Amino acid sequence: MQHNTHGEMQAIKKAISCTLFILSYLFVEGSCQDFGGGQTQFICTSVPKDMDICAATLQNSMPGEDLKTTVMQLRETVLQQKETIMNQKETIRELTSKLTRCEGQSAPEPGPGGRRKETGTKNTMGDVSRGPSDTLAQLSQTLQSLKQRLENLEQFSRNNNSVQANSLKDLLQSKIDDLEKQVLSRVNSIEDGKPGLRNETEQRGRVESTLTSLHQRITDLEKGQKENRPLDKFQLTFPLRTNYMYAKVKKSLPEMYAFTVCMWLKSNASPGVGTPFSYAVPGQANELVLIEWGNNPMEILINDKVAKLPFIINDGKWHHICVTWTTRDGVWEAFQDGVMRGSGENLAPYHPIKPQGVLILGQEQDTLGGGFDATQAFVGDLANFHIWDRKLSIGEIYNLATCSSKAQIGNVFSWLESSIDIYGGASKWTFEACRQLN
User: Fold this and answer.
1) Is 133 in contact with 200 (CB distance < 8 Å)?
2) CATH 2.60.120.200 is right for the domain spanning 235-437
3) Is the pLDDT of residue 160 over 90?
4) Which of 149, 157, 200 lies closest to 175 in space, CA to CA?
């Protein structure tokens, strides 16, 4: 049995070699101008066991017009691919040169807990060290997000027979098509090196203006959904890393000697999902922060003191996470999907969470209510964000993660659309936590 299998493998290898030989012969021998006339025929010929298959193929078969056409098409395709590769190499060389110049600049030093210190003006399209290729990738992600939202709206309009929704959807689709053309034009300008289109600031301004207009129109269209859903059945979406997309909680937190914070998260961002939330108070930007930045594990910061959390959530799936803490001995516990994954102590012991601060979703604050860094921005979806001023029990957290009817809402902050303002293109749309568990 093994001998037969070996023989079959040898035959397959020889057939592949034969095919390559024939194609190479047809490509190289330009003098073979006449491939035969008449109607095309395909003939299966038996070949003796010891006879060379390639020789028999060339001897017994005459390629017809179809084979000639196919070979010529393949040859043309190869030439086109070669030309494309040469163009891409030139583009890569140009982008690499720009990236090298950017990397040659001094990078900001990391602050406590792996966070960067503030170093001046920030780039509204993301990290100042990013080159055109990264910016285009960000724009592509934004377009995909807008298209996904349009698909959701299209489904909504079909279910509700909304003529106005359909009309607006068509208009938005046209706008997105126009934006894609702008991105393509920008790619061409980078490849061609046109002097008139090298002003990155001007280009970013144009694209951001278009994105803002699109987000506003989609938000207007999504308002039709809000009338038919409870105020807590929504999610926030942050489609890409910027320093301008975020949500702000309208009220501050009280002084707390213990807390539990829980939420649903979905992300496939790498490296690090970013900052789901940050709470800053006067004189302390890192009063309470949840962050996963760079290649570091997710961390909880209290008064700039750090504890590493054993969460693994960047797999593109929804996960329920909770963190509890008490000021006495700084004891903390971390739960993922209703199961305790880690615990510790001595995290900012006997330091109460201070009141009168600013609570931001999606960004890490370097100053009170601002100083955002695109590299630390959250990328993904966030929902059902709740805060309690006490430590929840294991059973209570399990009920939250499994959508039990006994689940409670936060007594310090509860997830309601009316409690949050969004900025910079972050979006709200319908979300049902229990539905994704089924």
Assistant:
1) no
2) yes
3) no
4) 149
| Domain coordinates in residue numbering, the chain | 1-27+45-63, 132-228, 235-437
Which pTM does this prediction carry?
0.56
Residue 150, CA distances (Å) to 175, 216, 240, 381 in order: 12, 13, 17, 17
DSSP string, 105-142: SPPPPB-GGGPBPP-S--BTTB-TT--HHHHHHHHHHH
154: part of which helix (H) or strand (E)? Answer: helix 132-160
The pLDDT tens digits of the residues spanning 116-130 come to 444 443 333 344 344
Give which of 104, 138, 130, 105 is closest to 119, Cα–Cα: 105
pLDDT tens for 272-295 read 999 999 999 999 999 999 999 888
Tokens of 214: 């699109």
Q: Positive or negative, the Cα torsion across 158, 164, 170, 172?
A: negative
User: Quick check: 271 and 295 in contact, CB under 8 A?
Assistant: yes
Which two structure tokens, joined as six digits, stand for 192?
A: 């061609």
**Distance separating alpha carbons of residues 385 and 362, to the nearest angstrom:** 12
**154: Cβ–Cβ under 8 A, 6 or more apart, which residues?**
166, 169
CB 179 within 8 A of CB 151: no
Separation of alpha carbons 370 and 363, rounded Å: 9
Distance CA 266, CA 104 (A): 35
Higher pLDDT, 51 or 74: 74
* Rounded Cα distance, 388 and 287, in Å: 16
| pLDDT band, very low/low/confident/very high, at 357 (cuts 50, 70, 90) | very high
Higher pLDDT, 35 or 85: 85
